[in-house]
Amino acid sequence: MASIDPMTGDEVTTVAVAGRADVDAAVAAARRAFEDPAWAAISPDERSRVLYQIAEVIESHADELATLDTLEMGGPVSLTRWMVDHTIEVYRHYAGWPTRIYGATAPSAPGQLQYTRRSPLGVVAAVAGWNGPLLQMGYKIAPALATGNTVVAKPSEQTSLSVLRMAELVHEHTDLPDGVLNIITGPGRSSGEALITHPDVNKISFTGSTAVGKHVLETSARDFKRVTLELGGKSPFIVFEDADLEAAAAASALVFSAGSGQSCVAGTRILVQESVREEFTRFLAANTAKVPMGDPFDPQVLMGPLASRGHYEKVAGYIDLARKEGGEIIGNPHDETDDLFVGPTLVTGLDNTSRIAREEIFGPVAVLLPFSDLDEAVHIANDTIYGLAATVFTTDLSRAHTMADRLQAGTVWINTVNQMSSGPLPFGGFKQSGLGREHGTDVIDAYTETKAIVVNL
């Protein structure tokens, strides 16, 4: 299959499509490696050392890996380089876990010892989206390896190159045993389907759309695969009248526009208290007009092209829909069809029942929704099938904590935006934004089983 540069429309290279036999071979290799003492019997210290090696080899090739992501997804190199740097932090974080996975002793009858230990699940299928392939894979591969599992990873068919190159580098420059990490490439509907339905896969960790996540969950029920799902979002960005409006506007413009809005946590429903709506809208429009858009290899650019022609047509279709629904468009969406650029687009004049406010667009399109008081803000923010993230700007400490408590979201940012954890904080969604958590202590439950042991002394 062809790998396409969305900036130029040119073919970068071709990538193999894994058939069922290829998937069978990858899973079989992972199963052999899982049972091989070369991986299964190494010490926690040794497993930590290997994870540190992976972090080091990614760091030594960071520019190359960021370049590959920019070539395939059109994301600004400033963004893809941040993603690579964040990926390095993720592997270093999980390198500390193998020596800290404890069991426990349990109260027992006289003459007995009862205790628990954590056992790895087996073969993990890691499936990532196209909008951050290396980073999303790091969120899955690092904890899977830290807990003693083996992995078969499938990047998106649109963005395979950085993950393939990372695996090549790991094979050449680290002591990770053969078969522990395997990469297959190909479309989700064929290669991905063969992987997630494979009977010898014990867990699926998936990042992508809510619709596909539902399918993953349904198929997992056939043989009770463990599942972690990080899915879509329609995150509220809430601005109260006491907030620093200029700072809030600058942050809002950045989070729904940077990377062309192709982020699951983008604050695309902007809730503004009515008393400051007009003033905030002026600030926001001024900031969106200044977001630099152009060649993604220009280090000053924050918005490159959308990732593909099909995705461009989807986003442009939502802008047309907003007009048909009676919305007013603020900004300069690019309506030409000779490239894949869409400018920051703010929609006003619609309410939270409109499709533009309810459906995930995954582009630089946000809708502005006024509210009167805290209770109405909470109601509008929570009136969605999603619950991945939320942002609140206010200088009232009580209000900030009250909102954090009442918002139905896996992550709430207060007077800051998109602060992603490299491991200590759990990440995941409420409602249809996902199942389970990546990072935090929750991740140990996600990649291990608890085994109870009773010994008659």
What does this structure look like?
By secondary structure, the chain is α/β, with parallel strands linked by helices. The chain is built from 16 helices and 18 strands. The strands form four sheets. A seven-stranded mixed beta sheet has the order 12-13-14-11-10-15-16, sandwiched between helices. The chain has a six-stranded mixed beta sheet with strand order 7-6-5-8-9-17, sandwiched between helices. Helix 1 packs parallel to helix 8 (188-196) and helix 10 (245-257) packs across helix 11. The termini are far apart. The model has no long low-confidence stretch (mean pLDDT 96).
Mean pLDDT rating: 96
Quote the distance from N terminus to C terminus: 61 Å
The geometry reads as globular
Provide the structure class: alpha/beta
**What is the C-alpha radius of gyration, as a whole number of Å?**
23 Å
The low-confidence runs, each spanning 5 or more residues with pLDDT under 50, are none
The biggest beta sheet is recorded as: 7 strands, mixed
Order of strands, main sheet, comes to 12-13-14-11-10-15-16
Instruction: Output the number of helix runs.
Output: 16
What is the β-strand count? 18
The level of helicity is 40-55%
Strand content: 15-25%
